[in-house]
Amino acid sequence: MDHTEVMKPETLDDLIKVLHQVFSSDCINVEEVQNIMESYESKPQEWMKYAKFDQFRYTRNLVDEGNGKFNLMILCWGEGHGSSIHDHTDSHCFMKLLQGQLKETLFEWPDKKIHGGMKRKSERVLQENQCAYINDSIGLHRVENVSHTECATSLHLYSPPFDHCNAFDQRTGHKNTVKMTFWSKYGERTPFVRTFVFSLL
Fold first, then answer.
1. Is the terminal CB of the chain with fewer CB neighbours within 10 Å at N or C?
2. Which of 62-71, 157-166, 189-198 has the lowest mean pLDDT?
């Protein structure tokens, strides 16, 4: 996609409008999307209505469906909450910190024979308003709120949207396909479904 001349999004609604404009094309300029996501300065009064926390695990809260081209969602991480090691089923993943800090650990794809567990590539701590990017060619990752006193909130964009991904056992590299669910949509709690869902991004 060509670079689109856009104004800096001043509000979350502005950001959503700009993203719809950028994703009107079938091609994605990763750098452009990452810059747009990063240029939005987090304002809790704008996104708090989507930020639904759970006592026991982090939550995925849908904000916008992006005309079928992307899903924009807010993830809420209580103290000590984290994801499994997982892939993104050939989708682009952008992750922007709205509040708090999150630790991202990158892993290499597991070989058939693993000795000593899956291999870590790198790790970093993302700060407020920073935006990270990953896809399956970069590797796998795990995201954690390592704080035991502060919650964290992040804004995620996935393109194309997906409802399944693979979770990996760090010790063996064994993978399981798991279904993704939303804790809420557009600020409203989704109906409770009595199924077991892995903690994933």
1. N
2. 189-198
Count other Cβ atoms within 10 Å, centred on residue 12: 22
Helices and strands (H, E) in the chain, number of each type: 3, 13
Band of pLDDT at residue 193, cut at 50, 70 and 90: low
d(CA 33, CA 22): 8
Whether the CB-CB separation of 8 and 39 falls below 8 Å is answered with: yes
Question: Does the global pTM surpass 0.85?
Answer: yes
> Mind listing the pLDDT tens digit for each residue in 93-127?
999 999 999 999 999 999 877 778 999 999 999 99
Nearest Cα neighbor of 33 from 11, 1, 61 is: 1
Residue 18: count of CB within 10 angstroms of its CB: 20
Sheet holding 71-77, edge to edge: 131-134, 92-99, 152-159, 71-77, 59-64, 184-185, 188-189
In whole angstroms, what is the distance from residue 69 CA to residue 16 CA?
Answer: 12
Q: Which two tokens stand for residue 13?
A: 């609604």
Is residue 142 within 8 Å of residue 85, measured between CB atoms?
yes
